[in-house]
Amino acid sequence: MVEILVYGAVTSAIYAMLAVGFTLIFGVARVLNLSHGTFYALGAYFTFTYNGLFKIPLLPAALLAIATVAAFGVLMERFLVRPLRHSALAVLMITLAVSLLIEQVLFLIFGSEYQNVQSFVSAKVVIAGVDLGGQRLLTLGVGTALIAGLWLFIQRTRLGSAILAVSQDPTAAQYMGINTNRVFSIVMAISAALAATAGVLVAPFLTVQPGMGLVPMIKAFSIVILGGLGSIPGSLLAAVVLGYSETLVGYLISSSYTELVSLVAILLALILRPAGLFGKLVAF
Question: Are 44 and 117 in contact (CB under 8 A)?
Fold first, then answer.
């Protein structure tokens, strides 16, 4: 039971970091970013590059990797997404193209073999007689802290108020003197940084290979559909539901069936509640 509780919480934290960034960019900029999983993969690969190849200490390497991916997200929003934002289909196609391109670039540079990323915490922690990996507990702690910090940033800062205003009515926000393009870039940077952080944290105990961004993209998409497009509280609740559902299926049935959970969640959500648990068109 302790294993299920902890591993379910870790999985939920990972999914929350992925889904919150994905739904944030939709809630604010009305953009469905199909390259979101790419940010996750790049976080892991940049950490491996900076630490494993350039020999930068692990923590600075991880922070530099996250900053690099955030900068990539800003450049992508400025030069690829923004000119096409008037067409949802065009944005879907360009973000999908970016995802496929980055995957091929990673394959050409690193090959198809798995890469090993150093753990931040190698020791194990014993809770109620159960050995738990320190890296997984670190992932849970950092993920929880980041989500809480993002909520405080949105609710308590002036820039957060601007993000809220743009998510509710971009035109009215622009008339009030808010630079909406700047807000879009900031939100894309936050979205990319959250996904990259998830990639950095899971890289030591999950596989790092060029196609690693696909499954997280599917998970994030499943969660935002279940929680409601544009609703961060809905995404958080859906991340917990999906995280614990997969953990229970893995322990009680077989880990081979865990990938079906997200697909079943999408089908049930579309059939029973198409708007999701907290469906709306704003981020908070």
Answer: yes
Residues 93/85, Cβ–Cβ less than 8 Å: no
What is the longest distance spanned by two Cα atoms in the chain?
A: 59
Tell me the average pLDDT across 129-151: 91
Q: Which residues contact 122 (CB under 8 A, 6 or more apart)?
A: 134, 135
> Is residue 254 domain-resident?
no
Total number of domains constituting the chain: 1
String of DSSP letters for 213-265: THHHHHHHHHHHHHH-TT-HHHHHHHHHHHHHHHHHHHHHT-GGGHHHHHHHH
What mean pLDDT comes out for the span 187-204? Answer: 97
Other beta carbons within 10 Å of 58:
17
Q: How confident is the model at residue 128 (pLDDT cuts 50, 70, 90)?
A: low
Report the SS3 class of residue 176.
coil
Q: Which two tokens stand for residue 52?
A: 């494993």
Instruction: Among 153-157, 162-166, 172-176, 251-255, name the one with the lowest average pLDDT.
Output: 251-255
Return the structure tokens found at 251: 């322990």
Banded model confidence at residue 16, pLDDT cuts 50, 70, 90:
very high
* Model confidence at 281: pLDDT above 60: no
Whether 259 maps to a domain, the answer reads no
Q: Does 230 map to a domain?
A: no
- Tell me the residue range of the domain where 78 lies: 2-211
Residue 101 located in a structural domain: yes
- What span, in angstroms and rounded, lies between the C-alpha atoms of 176 and 263? 42
- pTM of the prediction? 0.93
C-alpha angle 119-216-50 in degrees, rounded to nearest 5: 40
Rounded Cα–Cα distance for residues 134 and 125 (Å): 6
Angle between helix 180-202 and helix 158-168 axes, rounded to 10 deg: 110
Quote the distance between the C-alpha of residue 16 and its chain's center.
Answer: 7
Q: What average pLDDT does this structure show over 28-38?
A: 93
